[in-house]
Design a protein that fits this description.
Blueprint: E1 2-4, H1 18-27, H2 34-46, E2 50-53, H3 60-71, E3 75-79, H4 86-89, E4 91-93, H5 95-108, H6 113-120, E5 126-128, H7 130-135, E6 144-148, H8 155-167, E7 169-172, E8 176-179, E9 185-190, H9 198-202, E10 205-208, H10 214-224, H11 230-244, H12 254-266, H13 274-284, H14 288-293, H15 296-308
Helix pairs in contact: 1-2, 10-11, 10-12, 11-15, 12-13, 13-15
Length: 313
């Protein structure tokens, strides 16, 4: 759970069209297809949360980061995990400070118990977590709220989010309902390790982020890893695309493609060869069974196929 300030630039106006959204994303080196840009534009225009689902490493989280950077807004990230609760996600009372206040009041004397109870449950003693900070930011500027990997949480927390996502508000028993004066830009992501309840999805605009095709992935690689030679970049993309067509437990995402390109550049490679693939396959694949499936013979065949075809992208 982090808060980041994307530079000192003032908040920018929201894009006025799908084309402007494509340009906004491209200006931050995010290569998006028109369907994703349309979903982002509508989420901004209609002030609706955007629910992005897809395999890990396809660029879902990056959408929120790019929007915060491009629009000059603070990014508040709620990283989800099993057992996440209200105290970690929304608010918590600062019990040590409250106890100090109680001791001071008792020492001074003459304070009614009811009055003291009222005094210690005020915003002065409230520890604000990402959800509350997104709805009532201290600088009064609506931030970008990233609720990342919602599928890692439990269903009770999903149920708690319904009020946040539908009405942009939370209820604190001691203070009442706190509603956002200006709704934050909300991006929710899921790697689909389990199904998210329909009630969450109904409150959001939904988009499935798929693996990119070869041309799109090459465009991403050129933008993100320009130091890679053109021929190497084409071979990397062609090889990765072939891996995704195999029966692997976890196919490499765009993040792994970029990591592999960075590793190959660090090794001063300008072309793929079977030995280099064998030495670096752990950058692309994260499960031993998948790594084992890329035997020296398989690596040699894939490299030969990529180079024989001339990597026509």
């Amino acid at each position: 759970m982090t808060a980041a300030r994307p530079g000192a630039a003032p908040a920018a106006a929201l894009p006025a069209s799908v084309d402007a959204t494509l340009d906004l994303l491209a200006a931050q080196d995010y290569v998006a297809d028109r369907r994703l840009a349309t979903a982002v534009f509508l989420a901004l225009k209609l002030r609706r949360p955007l629910f992005l689902e897809g395999e890990a490493g396809v660029g879902k989280t990056e959408v929120a980061k790019v929007l915060a950077q491009a629009l000059g807004r603070r990014l508040l990230r709620l990283q989800c995990y099993e057992g996440l609760d209200v105290a970690a996600a929304v608010y918590e009372w600062n019990y040590p400070r409250q106890m100090v206040e109680i001791r001071l009041a008792e020492a001074a004397g003459g304070v009614e118990r009811a009055e003291l109870a009222h005094d210690i449950f005020t915003t002065r003693f409230l520890l604000r977590r990402p959800l509350l900070e997104a709805l009532a930011p201290h600088d009064a500027e609506a931030p970008v709220l990233l609720i990342d990997e919602l599928d890692r949480t439990d269903e009770p927390f999903e149920a708690y989010l319904l009020e946040v996502l539908s009405d942009y508000q939370v209820t604190i028993p001691e203070l009442g309902t706190i509603r956002a004066a200006a709704p934050p830009i909300v991006v929710v992501t899921s790697n689909r390790t389990r199904e998210i309840h329909d009630a969450i999805k109904r409150r959001c605009l939904y988009h499935w982020v798929d693996y990119p095709d070869a041309r799109t992935e090459l465009a991403i690689l050129r933008r993100k890893r320009p130091q890679a030679a053109e021929s190497l970049a084409r071979e990397i993309v062609a090889f990765t695309q072939r891996l995704r067509a195999m029966d692997l437990f976890k196919a490499p995402g765009i993040a792994e493609t970029l990591d592999w390109a960075e590793a190959l550049v660090a090794l001063d490679r300008v072309a793929l060869d079977p030995q280099t693939v064998a030495d670096t396959v752990g950058v692309l694949l994260k499960y031993q069974d998948d790594v084992g499936a890329i035997s020296p013979d398989v690596a040699a065949r894939l490299v030969a196929e990529v180079q024989a075809e001339g990597v026509r992208l």
